[in-house]
Specification:
By secondary structure, the chain is an all-alpha fold. The protein contains seven helices and no strands.
């Protein structure tokens, strides 16, 4: 089960934190009665929204009638249940597709248990088509078609189109020594500033 609650933002003794901790440790039966009642209401709201695709007003009406809570409490429960169970909007295409697949799989289980084999086959086929089971997805490239890059190693700088390096070793040595002298002068100047300062 995926929870939509950001655990790092929960206060240690908040109701969602206590319920989430009990749920993750599989110890819901140790919750106080009032917390267990809140979790049961959230779970009912999750089922009404996900499985029956009810809108918030319909869910609120059901919760007021079934649990005897106020309308404002029912909307607060709806808000908290959506955060707890990570319920997304109904107009999300992937959400609807996932819900339909879940319904089809549940109906297929029921048909299988009752021995309705043609109905079972039709439901499984439809669920498979929704999941794109027959479509071969290009999840990896064709490695046999990849041509690896073959670098060419050249030992003569005249054969490559790079700027010509100074051929004279003495020029290279002089440039290197000049850069070292500048670096040493800069370090000496910094040392004098620190000691005189």
């Amino acid at each position: 089960m995926k929870s939509g609650i950001n655990i790092s933002r929960l206060k240690p003794e908040s109701i969602p934190h206590i319920i989430l901790k009990a749920l993750l440790t599989q110890s819901l039966d140790t919750l106080p009665a009032e917390h267990l009642e809140i979790y049961n209401r959230w779970h009912q709201i999750n089922n009404l929204i996900r499985k029956r695709m009810l809108e918030d007003a319909q869910v609120s009406k059901f919760m007021v009638e079934a649990y005897g809570i106020s309308k404002s409490q029912s909307y607060e429960d709806i808000r908290q249940a959506k955060a707890f169970f990570a319920i997304t909007r109904h107009d999300d295409r992937e959400y609807k597709r996932g819900t339909y697949i879940e319904w089809l799989e549940e109906a297929a289980k029921k048909a299988f248990a009752e021995g309705k084999w043609k109905e079972f086959q039709a439901l499984i086929k439809e669920a498979g088509e929704l999941q794109h089971m027959k479509t071969i997805l290009p999840d990896r490239p064709k490695y046999e078609d990849i041509q690896p890059y073959q670098p060419t190693i050249v030992y003569d700088p005249n054969l490559i189109s790079a700027p010509a390096a100074a051929a004279d070793r003495t020029q290279l040595k002089e440039r290197w020594l000049a850069s070292k002298r500048k670096q040493q002068q800069a370090e000496d100047a910094e040392y004098e500033d620190v000691t005189n300062g």
